[in-house]
Amino acid sequence: MGQSLLSFMCRGNREVLFPLAGRGAREGSIRVIRWVSLGAGARPVPPPAPTALVWAGAFGGALVLVALLNTVVGPGRPSFALTALSLLAVLLGLCARFSAAPGTAVLCWLFLNGFAIPPAGTLTWAGSRDPFWLACLLTAALVGTVLARVAHARAAYRRISTGISATTAEPGAPTSFRNDPPAK
Prior knowledge:
Structural class: mainly alpha
Number of strands: 3
Strand content: 5-15%
Distance between the termini: 58 Å
Low-confidence stretches: 1-18
Strand order of the largest sheet: 1-2-3
Shape: elongated
Mean pLDDT: 78
Order of helices and strands: EEEHHHH
Radius of gyration: 28 Å
């Protein structure tokens, strides 16, 4: 150990021990520098949910919605099911990544096509109907994701701009990142 550099890991924080040099240093004294990851602090924008979790929500939610609609409204009414599954896709998009949108749309379409229209349990492809349904569901998932990203970005901007404007000395003064005295 002696005069050599020591480093070790402590659950995400790195601590580097090194001998103290310079004036007033006693022999054998050691100073500690702590390196902290930038991601360890508060994040201005919350991270999206994992894609697998969003897809699990799409699977379970579509299953429940289609079963409920088939019970209440009856099978063979795909417009109600498409509307309900589109709303589900928007809600799931609010907490998802953009990459989860296609999978969410396909899972909702599988339940719509497989169980909301007769014959139940059989997947079919109608040339004009199914691409429209997939496009509606994909658009709904993307709209939810875009809405969430815009809302989070606006909230982060408000937090940042509020912090900057609070440091200005005079109301109506131009905002700067430094606390320089005004020019005369």
